[in-house]
Specification:
Blueprint (H helix, E strand, L loop, with lengths): L1 H38 L3 H18 L6 E4 L4 H11 L2 H20 L11 H23 L20 H10 L3 H17 L2 H4 L2 H5 L2 H19 L19 H7 L11 H28 L8 H18 L4 E4 H9 L6 H15 L2 H4 L4 H15 L2 H9 L2 H16 L2 H22 L2 E6 L5 E7 L2 E2 L4 H9 L5 E6 L5 E2 L1 H13 L6 E5 L11
Parallel strand pairs: 4-6, 5-7, 6-8
Antiparallel strand pairs: 1-2, 3-4
């Protein structure tokens, strides 16, 4: 009976993972190409990275739902790295070395860093990415942007920013692309209604697949009967055509191992490794929060998987990779259950360049923009903002600051700003609760009892020092550490200094269960 249950469970996840993998592929394809273009790398490089991220890293990683591939957050680093090292082949060597460094970080158990990011910042990152997806896809949805899928940064490569790009797009709508976008959006919204969800057949066919087929059909109709509405090639997917193994081999690049003696290679490698690792840890933390089953990703294993993936990618001509939140979110929204969906997306990327490039080059970008608009909305639903507001200002302010910082700068800078605000509120919370304070008025002098909490860290030092500094003169102060499991040295030193100087204000000090330390003298 148990084996039959396991088989039915595996079939159920398979039935969800394959359609989800197809949706992720449709989202990943233009992003892989767009990131290659924005990075100044060969167009095929992003596809190679996406294939390795899906086919290899999905099985090495411990995450069930994250998707790995080329990341928009690394675009500037890749562009500067290629310029610094002067050849793409030398840059590939830096990618290989970055992967090796990530592998070492994994063995050193550096993955724990990701656990120190506050939940409000992670949720802010997800909401910001949702808003960016919506704002960045509007020009493509209207068929009025030549900057492909561009960058997620506020300032775009074409000199426009997020909002001026939308303003320009509204004034330069391509009617044919707009019609395709509207039909595509309508199909996706219809597919998400309860009536369609009740039909078993529609559970196995992702709405994104219907969108692709319908968009190609509509544009073919335009070409044959309404040429004035036909969508130009600049607003269609643009894959390299590979008709033989020789063509495939010609698209691959090998690292320039002679560049081992170039010190700049190691600087670029270190930069890629650190930024890619941080982006990966943030992404898997966010994915774990979105996972309906609340599974936890082993972060050290993830660093090792990313390291091996980057080494392979660099060896055959690919861009550096990270776990990427946009594709991972699309995976979850599409109903992915296990790592098989990421693997399927990698297989589809491989098949797309080998077998389907001709067909995929007919897909309008406005149709794919509609898919991303839906993904973006689900990441930044109004309910998320209401939920954070109910949690109070200490959660809501870092959340909003993270969103605004990411919107107006870029992903990594925005996260750092949000993290700084989040840490401020953490310090403020620690400032409030390191001890219990009670004052009793007695006949001759006031008795003040300070009971230290279970864990008193250096973060609590400021609060305790200020409290001791404001002890009233002519009082008796009792400091009790009987309930404390840990008291940081900095706090012990502050208590010792207060004990030594309290007599100057006629304060008597009684200390219980608090270890004595020698206060350090500074000369």
């Amino acid at each position: 009976m148990r084996s039959e249950t396991n088989k039915s469970t595996r079939f159920a996840t398979l039935a969800k993972d394959i359609p989800a993998g197809l949706v992720v592929f449709l989202v990943a394809l233009p992003l892989c190409l767009g990131i290659s273009l924005a990075s100044g790398a060969p167009l095929f490089a992003g596809i190679i990275t996406g294939i390795i991220g899906g086919v290899v890293v999905s099985w090495l990683s411990g995450s069930q739902l994250s998707v790995s591939g080329p990341a928009a957050g690394l675009t500037v680093i890749v562009l500067n790295g290629i310029e610094t090292l002067q050849t793409y082949e030398a840059f590939l060597l830096a990618v290989v070395l970055a992967g090796l460094l990530q592998l070492v970080l994994g063995f050193l158990k550096a993955g724990v860093i990701g656990l120190y990011f506050p939940s409000s910042v992670i949720r802010g990152m997800l909401a910001a990415i949702g808003l960016i997806l919506i704002l960045k896809q509007i020009p493509h949805f209207l068929g009025a942007d030549e900057d492909f899928f561009g960058s997620l940064n506020f300032i775009q490569n074409d000199g426009k920013n997020t909002f001026s790009g939308i303003t320009y797009a509204i004034s330069a709508i391509n009617l044919g692309a707009f019609i395709v976008g509207l039909v595509s959006l309508g199909i996706l919204l219809l597919w998400d209604t309860p009536a369609f969800k009740r039909v078993k057949l529609f559970k196995f066919i992702p709405g994104a697949l219907i969108v692709v087929l319908a968009s190609v059909g509509i544009n073919t109709l335009f070409l044959n009967f309404y040429p004035q509405l036909a969508i130009s090639s600049s607003h269609l997917v643009n894959l390299p055509i590979i008709s033989s193994f020789q063509d495939f081999g010609n698209e691959l690049r090998l690292p320039d191992f002679a560049s081992f003696t170039n010190p700049s290679v190691y600087v670029v490698a270190f930069t890629i490794a650190i930024v890619a690792s941080l982006e990966t840890l943030l992404s898997v933390e966010a994915v774990d929060k979105l996972d309906p089953h609340k599974r936890r990703t082993p972060t050290n294993r993830e660093l090792k998987a990313q390291g091996i993936g980057n080494m392979l990618s660099g060896l055959i001509g690919g861009l550096p990779m990270t776990a990427v939140i946009v594709r991972s979110s699309a995976n979850i929204v599409a109903g992915g259950e296990t790592r098989l969906s990421s693997f399927v997306h990698g297989l589809f990327l491989l098949l797309s360049v080998v077998l389907m490039a001709g067909f995929l080059n007919q897909v309008p970008l406005s149709a794919l923009a509609a898919v991303l608009l839906i993904v973006g909305f689900k990441l930044t639903k109004p309910a998320l903002y209401k939920g954070q507001l109910k949690l109070g200002s200490e959660q809501f302010i870092p959340f909003i600051v993270t969103i605004l910082a990411i919107l107006f700068t870029d992903l990594l800078v925005g996260i750092c700003v949000g993290l700084a605000v989040g840490v401020f509120y953490i310090l403020k919370a620690n400032y409030k609760s390191p001890y219990f304070y009670h004052k009793e008025e007695q006949r001759d002098k006031a008795l003040i009892r300070i009971k230290l909490s279970e864990h008193v860290s250096f973060l609590n030092k400021a609060s305790i020092v200020l409290t001791l500094d404001h002890m009233p003169a002519n009082s008796h102060v009792l400091i009790d550490g009987g309930h404390s499991e840990f008291i940081d040295y900095d706090v012990l030193e502050a208590i010792q200094e207060f004990k030594q100087t309290a007599h100057e204000r006629n304060i008597t000090v009684e200390v219980r269960n608090v270890p004595e330390v020698m206060a350090m003298e500074v000369h």
